[in-house]
Amino acid sequence: MNSTSDATEVHSVWLRPRRAAKEEPPLSLERIVEAAVAVLDEDGIEKLSMRRLAQHLGVAAPSLYWHVSTKDDVVDLAVDAIFGELLPRNEPAAEWRDEITALLTAWRTTLLRHPWAAAVTARRRPSLGPNFLTQMETLQATLVRTGFKGDALRAATWALYNHVMGSASAETALHISDQERQLGQERLQTEADRYPTLASQRYLYDDDWDGSFNTGLRYLLDGLEIQLNAATPAR
Amino acid sequence: MNSTSDATEVHSVWLRPRRAAKEEPPLSLERIVEAAVAVLDEDGIEKLSMRRLAQHLGVAAPSLYWHVSTKDDVVDLAVDAIFGELLPRNEPAAEWRDEITALLTAWRTTLLRHPWAAAVTARRRPSLGPNFLTQMETLQATLVRTGFKGDALRAATWALYNHVMGSASAETALHISDQERQLGQERLQTEADRYPTLASQRYLYDDDWDGSFNTGLRYLLDGLEIQLNAATPAR
DNA sequence: CATTGCATCTAACACTGTTAGGGGCATCGA
DNA sequence: TCGATGCCCCTAACAGTGTTAGATGCAATG
After folding, report:
1. Which residues touch strand C (CB under 7 A)?
2. Is the dihedral angle over the CA atoms A106, A110, A111, A112 positive or is it negative?
3. Which helix (H) or strand (E) covers residue A112, if one does?
4. Could you tell me if A58 and A95 lie in one domain?
5. Are residues B100 and B213 in the same domain?
6. Angle at B191 between CA B189 and CA B196, to 5 degrees
7. Does residue B97 share a domain with residue B38?
8. What is the mean predicted confidence (pLDDT) over A205-220?
9. Which B residues, 84 through 123, put their C-beta within 8 Å of a C-beta on chain A?
10. Does B134 touch chain A (CB under 8 A)?
11. In this structure, is residue B78 part of a structural domain?
């Protein structure tokens, strides 16, 4: 019989820590979310479990449920937390295009710093957390100030949203080992008769994600500008 | 002691079916994928488990692992299967814009018919299944024929890809109960001071998804056309 | 000093993906 | 005709998941 067979089997009273060896601060929603972001950054979404998260906090798993009612809550809060890194920017640039570009670029930077975020956001409903809403408010306010309204405004908002989210999602999803991307490209080559274009262009396994994002955004903004000029012919 | 306490506890030899009562066809990769699509269509992604899938096929769960090496395989195959519904379309329309629009619209229709697909695809790396690649090949071939190449081609491909995928993903993710969308809109109203634009416009909880998709696509195509004219000034 | 109630604990449930290994059964070689 | 091979499905089990029930310590309050 082993006296210390497992950390979870210490039944002797004096060996059990009173709270913890180093008197950790008590649990709180903020600490949980902070730890969740840390775990997600380190190990990704599919390694996040309530037990691992609790262990990270020096606490038993069910204790989390006092502060949080479900695991989805934790993820939702984590997503919103990373959007909190983006300060609300009130600097109206001279050009609305520059303004939107700056906004979405910052947005994208945050998504890439936390590679799990884009995939998670794409999966569930767009978050309704305050930080995310603030970001969305800024985007749409800029569009309104530029002259968009009604259906055109909604279409523009969603198009821009999808561009940032989609590109970050695709980029992080394709961030795979060089070996695997090598394999994929080779497979395309061997079946070049079925996929002649894909094989000749290297459509997948691109490197220049920033470039694709920026020129894609330029396309979109060009299209928006046309819409803008058409809506207000007298300028 | 109950003689038939559970279907899995029938130990009596004569009660065990020789193969099955109605002589079901043997398991096969095709049948598994077909059943997976059915389960996904009915109950969504988070209700898909290997045991449920097996039950749907009148088979024990581990039997699936003879034909498939992991659950992810099943999902990947299911995703590719639904892209197989899209026939490769060889009808080159007069206008490249119409061609791309038709292609992406069909694409989008399929994604909406299987609401789980967009979310799943956004999460994992873009599928490498043959049906998906065929679709991508058609898209990019059209772009090449139109005159795109190099960086512009890649950017255009990804922008269009993100637009379809993103809009389908957002739409299916927001397809929630009227009550819940009511609640969300009300919350925006009560915090109208923080989100004045979002509250006045009803940016979220829109209904006209088709409209947003189409005008968004028009923006994008307008932008692409500008790029096209810039690249080939002598026309 | 007793009581209340917050915050955490241990145990446990139902479920997941997956593996180990057994066995029926058709096919093939001798 | 018999034995062996190998395919295909089975039962049993493992390690892990999210989550709930209920006990317990501990601080503040009457």
Report:
1. A 8, 26-27, 54, 58-63, 66-67; B 18, 48-52, 61-62, 65, 69-72
2. positive
3. helix A96-113
4. no
5. yes
6. 75
7. no
8. 91
9. 119, 122-123
10. yes
11. no
Residues A104 and A166 in one domain: yes
Tell me the CATH number at A120.
1.10.357.10
Contact B102, B89 (CB under 8 A): yes
Do B147 and B59 belong together in one domain? no
pTM equals: 0.88
Same domain, yes or no: A186 and A113: yes
Number of domains chain B is built from? 2
Predicted pLDDT of residue A9:
39
Query: What distances in angstroms separate CA A11 from CA A2, A23, A60, A63, one per listed residue?
Result: 12, 20, 15, 19
Answer yes or no: is A117 within a domain: yes
In terms of domains, do A116 and A41 share one?
Answer: no
* CA B234 – CA A63 distance, rounded (Å): 70
User: Can you give the distance from the CA of residue B18 to the C1' of nucleotide D1 in angstroms?
Assistant: 26
> What's the CATH number where B33 sits?
1.10.10.60
User: What pLDDT, in 10s, does the model give residues A62-119?
Assistant: 999 999 999 999 999 999 999 999 876 666 677 999 999 999 999 999 999 999 999 8
pLDDT band at A177 (very low <50, low <70, confident <90, very high): low
Q: Is the CB of A43 under 7 A from strand D?
A: no
What's the CA A106/C1' D16 distance, rounded, in angstroms? 38
d(CA A73, CA A75): 5
Asked if strand D contacts B49 at the CB level, meaning under 7 A, the answer is no
Task: Determine the Cα angle at A153 with ends A148 and A158, to 5°.
Answer: 140
Q: What is the mean pLDDT of each run of 10 residues along chain B (235 residues)?
A: 37 43 73 98 96 97 97 96 81 85 96 94 78 93 94 96 95 74 78 88 76 98 96 63
Rounded Cα gap, residues B28 and B31, in angstroms: 5
Q: Residue B159: its chain A contacts at CB < 8 A? A: 163, 212, 216, 219-220
Same domain, B116 and B193: yes
Domain that holds residue A52: 7-69
Is A76 among the domain residues? no
Q: Which nucleotides of D are covered by protein (CB under 7 A)?
A: 8-13, 16-22, 26
Separation in Å: C20 C1' and B66 CA: 14
Chain B, nearest residue to A149 by Cα: B201
Q: Which of B128, B167, B211 sits opposite A162 (nearest CB)?
A: B167
